[in-house]
Amino acid sequence: KNIVILISGGGSNMAAIVRTAQQEHWEQRLGARVAAVVSNKADAKGLAFAREHGIATAVLDHRQFPTREAFDAELATTIDSHQPDLVVLAGFMRILTPGFVARYAGRLINIHPSLLPAFTGLHTHQRAIDAGCKFAGVTVHQVTAELDVGPILDQAVVPVLPNDTADTLAARVLTQEHVIYPRAVARMLQK
Ligand code: GRF
């Protein structure tokens, strides 16, 4: 089975999945491997990590496409060249068209740094602090046409501490992201 991971930046979730996949010998246990990492940004730091770990990479700059549909069509062509069983959004900061989402229905997952359905969209950590939340967290969910909505696969909870800033809370949440995302990927592939 082939996993294709989409990133836009640091790629720490992608790296957590790659490390788990390589260290725990997923390839034998699940018959799955990370086949490719695709970024919409050429300077995404995660690309170097992927290359160093022997994974095929591709860059598709969304600014070079006239429409969202045109970008998504080329993105799908790139992804499909790796015959994906699972497409994993890991800090991929582009909204996907309904056509793209439908093409990968049931095999497209995302990680969102809030306890969904609370705080869809951006700036989740600051919004949780501003709301006075005592707990925050992260959600892995199936992707449907609507942003940050879709069947929840897994969540992890962290406390919001009195002196938290968006950055300190984000860091606490991120450590949990790295725990639950590889696990959710494995579960999807076990089905
Ligand atoms: C993570 O917090 C993820 O939940 C959000 O964007 C961030 C990406 O981090 N969607 P990384 O690129 O995986 O390090």
From TrEMBL:
InterPro entries: Formyl_transf_N, Formyl_transf_N_sf, GART, GART_AS. Pathway: Purine metabolism; IMP biosynthesis via de novo pathway; N(2)-formyl-N(1)-(5-phospho-D-ribosyl)glycinamide from N(1)-(5-phospho-D-ribosyl)glycinamide (10-formyl THF route): step 1/1. (6R)-10-formyltetrahydrofolate binds at residues 68, 93-96, 110. The record marks 148 as: Raises pKa of active site His. PROSITE patterns: GART (PS00373). GO terms for molecular function: phosphoribosylglycinamide formyltransferase activity. It is an enzyme of class 2 (transferase). It catalyses: N(1)-(5-phospho-beta-D-ribosyl)glycinamide + (6R)-10-formyltetrahydrofolate = N(2)-formyl-N(1)-(5-phospho-beta-D-ribosyl)glycinamide + (6S)-5,6,7,8-tetrahydrofolate + H(+). Residues 1-185 form the Formyl transferase N-terminal domain. GO terms for biological process: 'de novo' IMP biosynthetic process. N(1)-(5-phospho-beta-D-ribosyl)glycinamide binds at residues 11-13. GO terms for cellular component: cytosol. Transmembrane segments: none annotated. The active site is at 112 (proton donor). Keywords: Purine biosynthesis, Transferase. It comes from the Bacteria. Its EC number is 2.1.2.2. Catalyzes the transfer of a formyl group from 10-formyltetrahydrofolate to 5-phospho-ribosyl-glycinamide (GAR), producing 5-phospho-ribosyl-N-formylglycinamide (FGAR) and tetrahydrofolate. Belongs to the GART family. HAMAP family: PurN (MF_01930). This is Phosphoribosylglycinamide formyltransferase.
